[in-house]
What does this fold into?
Amino acid sequence: MARRRKTGNAGSLLLRYLVLGSWALFCVAPIIWFLTIGLRPRTEIVLPQPLYFPTFTLDAWNMIWSSWPMGAYLRNSLIAIFGSVLIDLLLAIPAAYSLARYKYRFREDIGFYILSTRMMAPAVVAIPIFFLFKTMGLLDSVWALMLIYAAMNLSLVTWIVRSYMLDIPPEIEDAARTDGASDLRILVSIIVPMCLPGIITAGVIAVIFAINEFLFTLLIASTQNAYTLSVALANFTGGSDGIIYNAIAMVAFIAFVPAMLLVVAIQQHLSRGLTMGAVKG
Amino acid sequence: MAQAITLNSGRAAQVARSPLRRRRSPLQRKAFPYLLVAPAVIYLLGITFYPGLYAIYQSLFRVRFNSWTFIGLDNYSKLLADNEFWASLWNTFLMGSGALLLEFLIALTLAALAYRDPFIRSWRIVFLLPMLFMPSAVSFIWKLAFNDGRVVSDLLMRIGLIGQPLDFLGDVWLARLSLIITDVWQWTPFLFVIFVAALQGQDAEIEEAARLDGARWSQIFWNISLPMLRPIIAVALVLRGIDIVTMFTSIFIITGGTPGGATETMSYFIYRTGFKRFDFGYASAASVLLLALTVIIAQSFVKRFFRSGRD
It folds into this structure.
């Protein structure tokens, strides 16, 4: 009996690693292959027969810096993304505190309204937002992108931070309150430091979503004044030569590295962040 | 924190002596939570509510560059008779539910196999990698693999599954399948990470008790873990489902809606009508219908799983 169980375990262990290993291969193989795309000459990409062992070259790296204003793309991305996250935190922390700590009329409705903006399809508001920014003279401007990214991520930042605030025992605040600290003071010097992991998690997820944003950026940006990495990629074409894949691959990895470092840093909080606090990982 | 408390403790005596002077008026106290939440709400209203109203207003007009002609509900009646619109709705449903179903099944299987594995941290990092690329970049990866670089066809030929190269983006079903695979590759980790956390977070004692009673691993999973997981599965599927309904980037980069509109989603339909054909009133009407669809989804599913504060 004991023996049968053992062989059964070995069999299921093998099956388990076979399944997990296959999926790992499916995840990693395209990435490695795309990395080799970034490191090969353009002439070895689009061929009748794919080439698996190409020539190694840094052509793409040199090309992205000489043929396109990469510096401007990076600067636009950084300003829009970090500016938007800053706006989010300034607006979301007080809002989250209000939702987590006070009881008042319409609290549930307000909370749900904030949440529901996460459900709004970008395409629904794309046209009005386009006209709004057009009248404000903000088309093709990195400030418009900052405002949009902030709006897009505000709901999830609020809900994530709120979830971490709920974890703080109310007794701590009560103690501070009896000591005479004002509500605002309690928020700034007690609550914010205590839910810093939540604030960082929310910030990282907002950064990732802002890096990824495509539709709004496509509509608002039309030159290097506002192109971010995500949309600049779609313009990496050489006229009659078609899409310049090795440059695209190179830029994809430039954006990938910081995203990966950020996510690895908050790995333990990721599931909670992605579900806006609904799942405590 | 400790510092904050000690800093303020000197104040306590003073407060105790003059409670009336420190306490704010009842009105102020009542307004305080509203004041905290107001900036965020106003910001969001400005960027969702105003555009929503604008879309409804614009949908009542025929817009030709700067000339707006009021046409009442004509855009809507035209839309409901428009085959391209219905096709985009159908494609969104078809590719969305296909991708969502695959992602769910794969993520649940992987999570069930991996959550008690000693190497779970490594699996999680590896499985997460596709999610960390920009969707535009991922779209190019798969456009190259399926079509321009012919890699998928070549690999399938090498292992003998097909005799000649497939025209992935030229065939209606293969093009849809290509987009589904692209989505599955990038977003299965989203569900995987959530499911693993939920499985790890469940009460290990119940599982242990079942094991001691002689329950097999599969029985424990089906009869204990899965039912406990249900609310979390629902939250994860709703969040992923809402993103899939708004699928745009991969369509824009990989197919542009071809062949013959077979991969055009609602988002892409709105984009094409507004920004390629400059028929903004018509596109706004489609936006309003998509908005109605998402509001229904949000109201019926989301409200149940999220609550603002303590009860």
